[in-house]
Structure formats: C-alpha cells, structure tokens
Amino acid sequence: MEHRIEKIxxxxxxxxYKLTPQREATVRVLLENEEDHLSAEDVYLLVKEKxxxxxxxxxxxxxxxxxxxxxxxxxxxxxxxxxxxxxxxxAEHFHHHLVCIECGSVEEIEEDLLLDVEKIVESQWGFExxxxxxxxxxxxxxxxxxxxxxxxxxxxxx
Amino acid sequence: MEHRIEKIxxxxxxxxYKLTPQREATVRVLLENEEDHLSAEDVYLLVKEKxxxxxxxxxxxxxxxxxxxxxxxxxxxxxxxxxxxxxxxxAEHFHHHLVCIECGSVEEIEEDLLLDVEKIVESQWGFExxxxxxxxxxxxxxxxxxxxxxxxxxxxxx
DNA sequence: TTGTTAAATAATAACGATTATCATTAACAG
DNA sequence: CTGTTAATGATAATCGTTATTATTTAACAA
Lengths: 158, 158
Ligand SMILES: [Mn+2]
Ligand SMILES: [Mn+2]
Ligand SMILES: [Zn+2]
Ligand SMILES: [Zn+2]
Prior knowledge:
Chain A is α+β, with helices and mostly antiparallel strands. Chain A is built from six helices and six strands. In chain A, 49% of the residues lie in helices and 21% in strands.
C-alpha cells in the first residue's frame, strides 16, 4: 500500500505535481477499493469519511489527473456515469470486464488475451495499438445457475 | 435501402410497434450515414433537414427503441455523448473500432476476431457471452505517416 | 361516418453528471 | 517575512438525457 502510494507520488513529482493531502486521501480510497468500479461520486463519499473537508470538484480534478498519469483508467459501462479503475500493478494493458446483463455484476480478467488480435490489427489494418477496451456482456456463473434452478422448479410444477 | 427499412418495419411490427413517419425518417438518416457514428443530436439535426417538425425527444425515444430491438448499438467513445451505430446487415456480433488518439478518426473492423477469446472466457470463467465491445486506441495509418514526415523534416533542419 | 381508445409525438421542464469560475488557502522560493 | 504560483472548496453554469404533459394520430368498433 505505502509502496504504491510512494510510486504514485514519484509519478506526480516527475510531472511537477504535488501529492497533496486531498490527493493522497483519494488515492488511498482507490487502493482500498481496488476490486470495485467507483464513480466520482462514490469516491467523493468515501474520501469524505476520512477527510470531510474535501470538495467534490477536487475529487474530479484528482481523478482527471490520475487518468492523465495512467494511474487509473476511466471507463464507461453504459449507465450514465464514468467509473475509475486503478491499473493493476505492473500491468502492461488495461484489463477486461465481464458485465452480467442479469444482475449487473462486473468481473475482471487480468490475462491479456488480445495479443494475437492486436498483431492482426497492426499488420492488417496498419493501426498502432496503444491501449484497448474490451467488455463482454452476458450471463455470469451465478445467474446461469439461478436460471437452471428456476427452470427445473418450473418443471416440477407441471 | 428499401429492403432494410422493410426488414426493420417487420421487426417493429413483431413487437407491435409502428413505423411512424418520424421513426422512418430517423432510420433513413441512420442508413444514409452508416459509416458515421452519430450522436442523438447529430441524428436530430439530420432528420430535421427532411422533417423539420420532429422533436428531439422523439429522436431519443426512437434511438432507444432501435437499441432495444438491436437494430442499432449504443456506443460510447469517452467523449461525453452516446453514439448510435447501425448493426451491419446479417452480422452476428457488434463490430470493433479503432480510435486514433491523434486525429480522433474512427475505423471499423467487421471481422469477428474474438471467437477464440470468447471460447476461453466461456470455458475458463464460466461466463456466457452474449455481446461484446472492443475498441482499440492508438495511431492510425495517416497519423503514423505524418509522424514519420515530421521527424524527417526535423532531421533536415539540423 | 363517428366516437373511443391507446400509442406516439412536440414542446419544454427537470434532472444529474461534469466542468467552469472565483475567492481563499497552502506551499514554497527568494 | 513576502511575493508567487498551485491547489482547493463552494457553487454556478453547462449540457446530454429523461420526464412530464397536452396534443395529435392511428386503429378500430359501433
Ligand atoms: Mn476493472
Ligand atoms: Mn461502428
Ligand atoms: Zn449475474
Ligand atoms: Zn489519426
């Protein structure tokens, strides 16, 4: 934890930004909720618990800054809000997501999986890939089981 | 063109929706600008040229309806607006996009490319894939050439 | 035709996420 | 200390989208 904050601090300093208390509080919230996909508002409310004096605008500004520095990735799952996702430590590329269209759960895939596809895109389309966004929409494991249970219950009724 | 409108008309009727003049005008605009990625506002302005009496809310409602029917896909490139993309005729899956981070151009890939990846996701994550969104961010062919030209010009100056 | 109903529409108000503005404060070099 | 610049907090403004409501249209039965 401290190690990662130290790293981010250096990234900020390298572009002559400071790690202010507000920025640090924001980063800590992101680190403590790494598995979630928080909106700016979500982050704001969590930061407020520790540093009640912080303003919403500062959270937005900090998230924007962290996005520029590629500490976080800004992502959009199609509900009306942007969400901020900490880059995995040492990850080359942004990770992928599995969004369940039944329950709304979001699972992560850290494996790259796209190496071959990117090669094809580079060679066949002459496009120099820098980053990617890949999201699958479908039915998660849990909802699949529920569907099976529901349909067998349906069978029994007959 | 007429053929595709006829098809969409049947899709609407199958869910007991009507192809009203406003809806038809909207669909025509989408068909005539199939290569673009229009926002709701863009569609509204183009429809207005032909049917000036149409309201913005109706365009939004129509686009929402067409999205439900999977005639169009709603997509978000990270600028603040949703864009609407007609499904390619007979396409199994939504197509992919190459977004240039230099000039903002958007290129399309109709080839699936994800068959293998989806198999892995299904088998390894137990996730039943229904749809996907894949966007690559990088440098398009044109901007790559410009970079080469610029750097060689730089060389000559020395 | 005429009246009855529900669906669809246009105009516009409301909403909500994000951004801009601006006065105040903190950090810091000289 | 003093001046300078970056950062912040409060809040107004913006802008894409959604909700509301009165009106129009289409379908259809009497
Ligand atoms: Mn994630
Ligand atoms: Mn497209
Ligand atoms: Zn689920
Ligand atoms: Zn380009």
